[in-house]
Amino acid sequence: MVIAAFLGIAYAAYDRALDFWPLGFANGLRGLFDLLGGLLLALLIVGILLVWFVSAIAAQYDRRFRGMASSFIAIIIVPVCFGTIVTVPLFDPWLWYAIFNKSSFEAAAATSGSSQNSPKFAIIDARDVSTGIAGVGLNHFVALIYSEGDPHKHVYNDSDEEKLGSNSVLTHLYGNFYRRDEYW
């Protein structure tokens, strides 16, 4: 069961790492990690789940119910751990990036070109974190935004809201920090 938890956490951490690692930084290593790492990790997980399923069926045939139950529980643990790591905001690397660099990001937002009367708004960091083969999947762009007001008003203009509404997601991270995911 520990191995099952490790497999679910490893694949989710792989997914989260590629969601934070930009394309321009160590591009060859990231490309290799993106194409080969995900495929090999997925094949490993599917193979191990298949072995556990066969062992559960064999244990049921031999009337070893404890072995059957532990194999089925291990099969269930993998997607539960994956889903937990992917959905819980505590495991988002963008959250920790905003927390650890809060003072420098607030200073950068203060020096941005917003006027004195309006709330501060700044796009702190924007990255291309697209995965897969170019042209096959969607391009994925992530931006870290600092906003003291309503970020929806600054992120979407009236004309852009319909266009970007279907492929852009704005998530509150921490304090005045937001994460915008755009898919093209």
Walk me through this protein's architecture:
This protein has 184 residues and is of the alpha+beta class. It has helices spanning 2-20, 27-61, 65-87, 93-100, 102-110, 151-155, 158-165; strands spanning 121-128, 140-147, 168-174, 177-183. The protein has a four-stranded antiparallel beta sheet. The protein is elongated.
What percent of residues adopt helix (DSSP H or I)? 55-70%
- What best-fitting shape do the alpha-carbon axes yield? elongated
Radius of gyration: 21 Å
How much is the average pLDDT? 82
**Major sheet: arrangement of strands:** 1-2-4-3
Pattern of helices and strands = HHHHHEEHHEE
Helix-strand makeup class: alpha+beta
Distance between the termini: 39 Å
Total of DSSP H or I helical runs spanning 4+ residues: 7
Low-confidence stretches: none
Tell me how many strands there are. 4
Quote the beta fraction: 15-25%
- Largest sheet properties: 4 strands, antiparallel
